[in-house]
Structure formats: C-alpha cells, structure tokens
C-alpha cells in the first residue's frame, strides 16, 4: 500500500499532523480521493451521532453576522438610476473610494458607492451560494459555483476596474475586470429568466470578432458570470441570447456591449 | 451561474438542519462549551465562504459540513492546548458518559443509536483508535504514543476500523 493510501483513514478522521496532511493532499490521486470521500461520510456519521442542540443565543449571533453581510448586497445596480441628491447623500454616508487609478469612468460618488459593494461581494455571493448548494445538494450547482472565488480574486486585484450599463429592460449590468488577473465578470441584479430553450451567452469581443465566453441563466437576485477565457487589452464584452447550450458565433442581436 | 436571492431564509433552513450536529461534534471534541460556541460560529461563517469549493460529487452536504466542523474543532484543540492539557481533558471527558445525545430531533437520535450500535460491533482496539482520533482529536502519532503501539499498527486499526464501521452502519 502506498503512503497516502494507508493514511486515508487518518486523513478522514483529521488524525494527520500538519506535515502528514500536506504530504497526503499533495500525493493523493483520484482513487485515493474517492476512498477518502467515502471514509469522510463514515466519519460524518460519527459526528452526527453526538448531536447537541446549541443555545438559542448562538443562532441569534450567527444570524446577526449574516444580516450584516446582507446589507451589502450589490448596490451598483441602483447607482446610475439615482438622482444627484440621493447619490450625494449616499456618498457622504460611505467611506471615500480607493479603487485603483483608472478604475472606472464613473465619478467619485459612483466610485464610493461601488466600493461599498465591492468591499465584500464575495461573502454576499458565497453566502447565497452556500444556501443553495446545501439545500439542493444536487449535481451541477456546486460545480458551477466557481464564481465567487474568482470574483473575490477580482475584487482584490490591484487593478480592478468596473463599468455599469443598462439592458433595454432597465436591468443594470456591472462589468468588473482585471488585466493583472486576466479575468472579467458580469454581475446583474435580477436578470430576466429565459425559457428552457434559451440561455444567455457572453462574448469577448477581440478585434471585432466574438469569442464565446460561456453561457449562463437569468434569475432573481444577483446573477454573476465569470467569463471563460483570458481577458486581453482592448477586449470588449457582449451578451446575446442563444439556443440552450450556447452557440459558437452569436445568432442574435447583442443585448449589451461594453468596453474594458 | 446563478446565485439565488432570499438567502437569509435558506441559510436559516441550513442552520436549523445542521446546527445540532455541528455543535454537538465541536462540543464533543472541545468539551468546553464557550469554545464550542465560538468554533460553531466560525464553522457556519466558513460554510458561506467555502460553499464554492463544495463538490457534491465528493459527498453529501452534511458530510462536508461535519468534516469542516471537525477539522476546525481539531485545529482549535491543537492550537490552544498542550498535550498534557488535552490528556487531562480527555481523561475527564471519558469519565463522563461517552455518548450524551441531547437532541429533540428523533432522526438525529436514531442516527446516534445506529452509530453507537455499529461502534459496539468493532473490536476494542479498533473502537479505541477511532474514538481517540475522531472524538479526542489526537493525531495517529499521538495515539501510537498513548497506546504504546507502533504507528503502522495504529494506521491499520484506523483504516480497518473505519471500513468495518461503514459496513456495520450500512453506509453505502
């Protein structure tokens, strides 16, 4: 038996020390990981066997934290729609902006508002994702949730830039990108759901040519799509509606075109 | 990708479904209630953060949550207490009833009963190694020292014990 396989039980029971664990995680192959997952289920049964109801105050404390996080749901969506007075009032309530130089074409007030959201979007998005994943527990959602990590990386990139625009129906879209990370993400606040035969598809527009950058669905709340492919200088981003599964070339009029 | 709204309610459901199991496990490892509450809070906050890394192909959501809870509890115990403290603590804990399941949920109680019965089918050596590792938070090296048994033997006991436990519980 190889070193890592004889440590599977130890790994499942958290009985490896720091160094052993690091080595195990480095060396583990697919078969080992599959067996580990199996053993972790057994370990979880041991865990579930000693259930004790936590004090009610704990629930309250945890929910307080959750509530605080939810106050920073994406706000970019409404910034552009506000009149100056409201925006000014908001700006005074918020901390000054420190988004990187050249971050956006928006004015200081908008930047201030954007920063408020960008400070903690990952936690907001991941929070929602966690709930969905845990409740559904199904295939697909968990795997599809690679967004928040990349969004988080984007937010923390030193050269993060943002731009907002509206779809024809008034839906606000925020484009967020970093050349350093080579990543670009689209964030919508409440994107109309399409019928089952259709999906939204994102495109990187390079030298006037569209490059397919992944499909996504509409939905209530925040809809985030991290575009496939690596962002290059001068790329634009477009969104179209395509048949389910997506297309290699756009087959409909762009709903939105933005420049980075 | 889609991130649903109304997440506070969804989180409440998740919390209510898992909190007794998470808290019970953390408490079992840490013994100290106030530390167990702190770690439980960390676990649920972390579950938000780490949800993107949860892969349903690798196991159930409950398994994932309890693995996270256990690893945090063990981290806490290893960082905050010396070997001697921990031995003392385990000594105290072992003199108390080993399974004090206090939960209103019938399915949780049944689950506990099933696991206890499965544990009882193991040999003493297998059960001891698993209990020291999982509930005691000891490393396999520490178990070897404590039982004055070669490390390789401890590894084998953990592995065989877990395989038999799984068979006894009928975990597929």
Automatic annotation (TrEMBL), chain A:
Pfam families listed in its UniProt record: RskA_C
Keyword entries, A-Z = Cell membrane, Membrane, Transcription, Transcription regulation, Transmembrane, Transmembrane helix
Give the matching Gene3D superfamilies.
Anti-sigma factor, zinc-finger domain
State where the protein is found: Cell membrane; Membrane
Q: Does the entry feature the keyword Phosphoprotein, yes or no?
A: no
Provide the residue span(s) of the region labelled Disordered: 85-106
Q: Which residues cross the membrane?
A: 124-145
Q: Point to the regions of Basic and acidic residues compositional bias.
A: 85-97
Out of the domains of life, which is the source?
Answer: Bacteria
Q: Which residues form the Anti-sigma K factor RskA C-terminal domain?
A: 126-252
UniProt topology in membrane: Single-pass membrane protein
PANTHER family to which the protein is assigned, alphabetical: ANTI-SIGMA-K FACTOR RSKA
Protein name (database record):
Regulator of SigK
From TrEMBL, chain B:
Can you name the source organism? Agrococcus versicolor
Q: Which InterPro entries does the annotation name?
A: RNA_pol_sigma-70-like, RNA_pol_sigma-70_dom, RNA_pol_sigma70_r2, RNA_pol_sigma70_r4, RNA_pol_sigma_r2, RNA_pol_sigma_r3/r4-like, WH-like_DNA-bd_sf
Q: Which Gene3D superfamilies match?
A: 1.10.1740.10, Winged helix-like DNA-binding domain superfamily/Winged helix DNA-binding domain
Q: Does the keyword Transcription regulation apply?
A: yes
Among SUPFAM superfamilies, the record links this protein to: Sigma2 domain of RNA polymerase sigma factors, Sigma3 and sigma4 domains of RNA polymerase sigma factors
Does Transcription count among this protein's keywords? yes
Q: What is this protein called?
A: ECF RNA polymerase sigma factor SigK
What does the sequence similarity comment in the record state about its family? Belongs to the sigma-70 factor family. ECF subfamily.
Q: What UniProt keywords are attached to this protein's entry?
A: DNA-binding, Sigma factor, Transcription, Transcription regulation
* CDD domains (UniProt xref): Sigma70_r4 (cd06171)
Q: Where do the RNA polymerase sigma-70 region domain residues begin and end?
A: 15-81, 118-167
Q: Which residues form the signal peptide?
A: none
One Pfam family for this entry, by name? Sigma70_r2
